[in-house]
Design a protein that fits this description.
The chain has 336 residues and is an alpha/beta fold. The protein folds into three domains: 52 residues, 434 Repressor (Amino-terminal Domain) (Orthogonal Bundle), CATH 1.10.260; 114 residues, Rossmann fold (3-Layer(aba) Sandwich), CATH 3.40.50.2300; 137 residues, Response regulator (Rossmann fold), CATH 3.40.50. Helix content is 46%, strand content 15%. The strands form two sheets. The chain has a six-stranded parallel beta sheet with strand order 2-1-3-4-5-11, with helices on both faces. The longest helix is centred in the middle third of the chain and has 18 residues.
């Protein structure tokens, strides 16, 4: 295969010479081919092509790995809610089952920190990276691709790698349906529903809003935009938004759909001072889960994201075929 003089060989050159995918070449060159069930003759063909093209010299000069590091990387926003904490714990357990040492780093939803941490983990020669809860993961996916490291987007999707997410739309529609049934039995008005929390334009929020609206529309109700309090994730913002609704309407909503456990904390902060009759007029649902909800003095239904299945699907997405195909895998949430 002819190449321009002076240009360094890349994994794409080796892939073309060995009749293999770039992700398969990456796994062979970093020593992970046996774990991902790549055939020995395929690995031999790739290493021979790399040798012929002088790629071993390039790898040494650039400080890239030629053997396994035994490290598995994950970044996530924080450990503040049970979902991300459970995600990290499930990741660590799955990594250890594969004789890998897991490294989990929180980035506080700061893009600059996400980029810096990703570069650092790649420099530490992680064998793969899970990118969890990052709204715009494509730049991180590109860094992984340039380093020849498989990666998977978890919780929020991207176009540069396989993605494993909760079925936000389907789960929200199901949860809203439960709230509709409960509110109807109590004589509540379906026009008095409120969606609380989340960020407009974000994948999870947009899909949960869509499911919420679809469920109400199926019952002949089309809410106006004022019934969507997309106030972000801070508990204080959710508390203030629910307080504003109460001041405007003189009561709690008949049905309260809460986007996350952080917003749920804010709702608890506001409702804790209300009398029992005011609480009895409202049914609440949260697209998140925490066991303390069983101790609350009002009706609440929670959906629990299936962290175990999400993590198993994420590890399965590390295969060369899925790295090339970049599928979007949606995992149904569980009624808690």
């Amino acid at each position: 295969m002819a190449r321009p003089a002076g240009r360094k060989t890349t994994i794409y050159d080796i892939a073309a010479a060995a009749n293999a995918s770039a992700s398969t070449v990456s796994l062979v060159l970093n020593g992970s081919w046996a774990r991902y069930r790549i055939k020995e003759d395929t690995a031999h063909r790739i290493t021979e092509a790399a040798r012929r093209l002088g790629y071993n010299v390039n790898l040494t000069a650039r400080g890239l790995r030629l053997s396994r590091s035994g490290l598995a990387g994950m970044i996530l926003p924080h450990y503040h809610n049970r979902f991300f904490a459970d995600l990290a714990e499930a990741f660590e357990a799955e990594a250890r089952r594969r004789d890998l040492c897991p490294i989990v780093v929180s980035t506080q939803r700061e893009e600059a920190v996400e980029l810096n941490v990703t570069r650092t983990l790649l420099a530490q020669r992680v064998e793969f990276l899970f990118i969890a809860g990052v709204p715009r993961p494509d730049p991180l996916d590109r860094l992984c691709a340039a380093a020849g490291v498989p990666c998977v987007n978890v919780d929020l999707p991207g176009s540069g790698a396989p993605s494993v997410v909760s079925d936000n739309r389907g789960g929200a529609k199901r949860l809203t349906g439960i709230l509709i049934d409960k509110a109807t039995r109590r004589g509540g008005s379906l026009a008095a529903f409120l969606y609380l929390g989340g960020v407009a334009g974000e994948y999870a929020t947009d899909n949960r809003v869509a499911g919420f609206m679809e469920a109400l529309h199926a019952h002949g109700v089309d809410l106006d935009p004022g019934c969507l309090a997309l106030c972000g994730y801070p508990p204080a913002s959710a508390r203030d938004a629910l307080s504003a609704y109460f001041d405007r309407c003189g009561r709690l909503p008949a049905g309260l759909f809460i986007n996350s456990i952080a917003a749920f904390e804010g709702a608890i902060g506001f409702t804790s001072g209300l009398p029992a009759p005011a609480l009895d007029a409202c049914v609440a649902g949260c697209f998140d889960w925490d066991p303390f909800a069983a101790c609350l003095p009002f009706d609440v239904t929670m959906l629990r994201q299936d962290v175990g299945t999400m993590m198993r699907q994420a590890f399965e997405a590390l295969t060369p075929a899925r790295q090339d195909a970049r599928p979007l895998v949606m995992v149904p949430a569980i009624l808690a």
